[in-house]
Every structure is written in C-alpha cells, then in structure tokens.
Design brief:
This protein is an all-alpha fold. The chain is about 80% helix and about 0% strand.
C-alpha cells in the first residue's frame, strides 16, 4: 500500500476496475495530474470504495440506477461510460431501456431521448468492436 492509501481506496480501486475495466481506469490514472489527484482519490474511496462496494445492491442494480440518474441529470459522458460498463456489470440492454423509460416519465422526455441516443451510439460502438475484435 502506498503512502496515504487506505483500505477503502484499495477496495474502491478494485471495484472501479471490475465495473469500468482496467483500460478505462488505467487511462484515468495516466491522465490525472496534481490538480485532480485529490478528486480521483475521493471518487475512488467514496463512490467506488463505499457506495459501489456495498452489498445491498448487485453491480447490475447499481449500474441501472446510475445510468438512470446520470441520464436524468444530463451527464452525457458519464452516461456513455456507464452504458459501456454494463458489459462488466451484467445490466442488459433491456435493463438500460427500462431505466430510460423511467427517466422519461420521472425526469422528462428530452433527458431520456438524449440518453437513448447516447446508449444507441455506445452499443453500436461496442458491437463494432466485437465484430472487429477490438477493445477500448
């Protein structure tokens, strides 16, 4: 364990890698700077080490809830990232579709419409990657 690294940080990093994949996490670490390192530590410990690591929801359930919340908030890049992560969480395309239907009713049709476009684009990219044998 490096200086200042906590058990929660180590556990969070393991969960983060499980959900988002090593390539994504490695890119985030490689792109971090002195400016955003405290933020990276915060999300690793709080989001991944605490919330995503709790036993009450499965990774699939957390994935569905997260996508719905991000869509409702209009967080496009995060929606795309978490749709891609469904490959690791077990949330199906049908799960995502149902979550976005809830977004339409409870957060507004425009938010859901935009998130559906993002999900469709991400799924098309994922399908193309599988066809070509690439991974990102």
């Amino acid at each position: 364990m490096s200086e200042g690294e906590t058990d929660r940080h180590r556990h969070g990093m393991a969960t983060r890698r499980t959900v988002l994949g090593n390539a994504h996490v490695d890119r985030a670490i490689a792109n971090s700077t002195e400016f955003d390192q405290p933020f990276q530590a915060l999300i690793t410990e709080a989001a991944w080490g605490h919330v995503w690591s709790r036993p009450n929801f499965t990774k699939r359930e957390r994935s569905i809830v997260t996508i719905a919340l991000l869509a409702a908030l209009g967080q496009d890049e995060e929606v795309a990232m978490h749709v891609r992560a469904t490959e690791n969480t077990g949330a199906s395309r049908e799960d995502v579709r149902e979550a976005l239907l809830h977004v339409a009713i409870y957060a507004g049709v425009p938010a859901a419409n935009h998130a559906i476009k993002i999900a469709k684009r991400v799924y098309e990219q994922m399908d193309a990657e599988k066809t070509s044998g690439e991974e990102t």
